[in-house]
Amino acid sequence: MSPREKNKGNQQESFDFEESEVENVPDKENQGEAGNGKAPLAQSYHKWFLEYASYVILDRAVPAIEDGLKPVQRRILHALKELDDGRYNKVANVIGHSMRYHPHGDSSIYSAMIGMGQRNLLIDTQGNWGNTLTGDGAAAARYIEARLSPFAREVVFNPKTTVWQASYDGRNKEPVDLPVKFPLLLAEGCEGIAVGLACKILPHNFIEIIEASIAYLQNEEFELYPDFSTGGVMDASNYNDGVRGGRVLVRAVFDIRSKYQIVITEIPSGVTTSSLIDSILLANSKGKVKIKKIEDNTSENAEIVITLPTGADANATIDALYVFSDCQVSVSPNSCSIANDQPTFIGVSEILRQSTDRIRGLLKKELEIKLRELEEKWHFDSLERIFIEERIYRRIEECETWESVVEEIHLGLEPFKKLLRREVNEDDVTRLTEIRIKRISKYNSFKANDVIKTTEKEIRATKRSLRKLTEFTISYLQGLIGKYGKGRERRTRIDSFVTIKATEVALPTEKLYVNREDGFIGTGLKRDEFVEECTQLDNIICFCGDGTFRVSRVAEKVYMGQDIIHVAVWRKGDEETIYDMVYRDGSRGDSYVKRFMVSGVTRDKVYDLTKGNKGSKVHYFRANLDGATRPIIVRLTQASKARTKEFEYDFGELAIKGRGSNGNRLTKYAIKSVRSLFDTEMKCR
After folding, report:
1. Strand runs (DSSP E) across 507-606, as ranges?
2. Which residues pair with 261 in a beta bridge?
């Protein structure tokens, strides 16, 4: 059984921790007459589901933290390595070769390979591999070609440190994990959906990943933030180290070329120029932004030219596009990977630490293997020199049996064995007997000594690298930047965004009308009284003659209440507008005066500004947008017993309170009319 198959068995045990409990739960529908029967079919479904879930999580959808690859990606790279001869291979041929290891068909292999090729790190491509900016797909597999990149050849493979397992049909060997000496998972990113499990690791910058690994090896602090190939500007203040619950905002980059022309030069991640243009046109059709014309001139770089109508403001339009189109997108990461054949949720910082530790371990293993090989080379080169220079080969000329040959060689080497670093074994003797006469005749002792000295020098250097393994690892990583870092600088700029509210950038494309008598407002009442221009996102506040008011969203037609006395656009948190009101309490009660603000309400809820008695009526109402007061003249009815039938009242003497206050009593006599001192129109309610 292969190592991964053994691990799968362990994983299955971990997933089945509740199975014993399920078996002990009685199933009423499947119980026998004795009442203690089991449900074998239900148990089988339970077991099959867990096996399927375990398989999808471990072998299909989620990458391994060891090499940062999903199984299909690992098998593609293994197939490319087997086919690698320096030349390009047809992708169709690579797919067919990969199917020896991947049992899920050519479609999944093709799509995975296209994604890897478009990221331009592990696969060197030739032909039409699609365009991530425009969303155009790649050509068919029979028309495009691929080979391993120089980076992949150096970093990904080493058969001496690879653990192998049998393929799904047992005919071939495939790697359990590739010995990748680079935090590949963070550079490539990954997205996948398993059974009850999702993974979304965002790509990070190649150079910054290596610099963070070096900082970790030097016990220094580091930070990692995503970097997208499409560029853009990113607010990563809530990245949360890539774990679930975090979020990054990515915006398009605009270039204002003239007063009425703006150009999108970089687009957000996960958006294509086609989908971005569609979202802009949709916002324009709904009246949320105003554009005159839009053109897509994208080739190698994004270039979407937007022409604005006369009178439009470029900066205001850009803000509106961030809110109402895909010029700003929110990306939520979910860092999930397979570690030790178990799903694990760790941040990108911990992924980098574990990957760096693995790189250090792989380099140590490679150095140890190299040291053994060098010592073996030194041993045989030294043995060969003794064998030839001391003419030991002549001792076996008269030998007739293999045993006598071995004995004579050992006897000849006996005086020199103390010069060697290990015992001479049967394999050494066999190799000595296989040396050709031509080599013996042309043997150069001076050249042989130089070769041995060079080997000794390499042995000392290898041992020194093992003693200073951390410094060696840092030097190796710095070498990767020097070889492959050119052209891989950060493309997505990091910035802090100011939140743009939709209500602040929405254009006033609608006209609000009111039917005061029937109590309706809306944008569709074009035959009624015009109020003002508004946006589709505005809230409208209406005050009625019975002392009630409500706030509602703009619509074609909304009922707000009978006898509307004031209607206007209302914005949450409005602390500048002060309302003056005079009302009668009940049908025959006293009249009160109040000043108030409306700062926060529940939409479509009816609020009462009076004491709530039936028959209450508003005599006077005024909305002061600037907060200034207006004195009023109150005229009482002739039938009232008051000596003064008309008097003046100054609202400035009244404190501003909340909408729920009852106000101060103005008079106990019946009021005929109330008007503002500076108004010619009578305010009779």
Report:
1. 510-515, 520-522, 529-534, 539-544, 548-553, 558-559, 564-570, 578-584, 591-596
2. 258, 307
Distance between CA atoms of 110 and 114, rounded to whole angstroms? 6
Compute φ and ψ for 137, nearest 5 degrees. -80, 165
Q: Which of 45, 52, 143, 168 is catalytic?
A: 143
Q: Is 52 a catalytic residue?
A: no
Asked if residues 251 and 493 have their Cβ atoms less than 8 Å apart, the reply is no
- pLDDT of 464 > 80? The answer is yes
Q: Which two tokens stand for residue 110?
A: 């093709």
Residue 263, token pair as written in the block? 């150009």
Rounded CA gap, 149 and 365, in Å?
24
Please state, as a whole number, how many other Cβ atoms lie within 10 Å of the Cβ of residue 329: 20
What is the pLDDT confidence band of residue 17, given thresholds at 50, 70 and 90? very low
pTM of the model: 0.77
Q: Is 189 left (phi over 0), alpha (psi -120 to 50) or beta?
A: left
How far is the C-alpha of 431 from the C-alpha of 388, rounded, in Å? 13
State the Cα–Cα distance between residues 153 and 356, nearest whole angstrom. Answer: 19
Say how many residues make up the chain: 685
pLDDT at 588 over 50: yes
Angle made by CA atoms 494, 497, 500, in degrees to the nearest 5: 155
What tokens appear for 35 in the block? 């009442």
Average pLDDT over residues 414-424: 89
Instruction: State the Cα torsion 465-471-474-479 to the nearest 10°.
Output: -50
pLDDT at 3: 43
Rounded Cα distance between 334 and 167, Å, is 30
Q: What are the phi and psi torsion angles at 595 (to 5°)? A: -120, 135
Evaluated on CA atoms 649, 650, 651, 653, the torsion sign reads negative
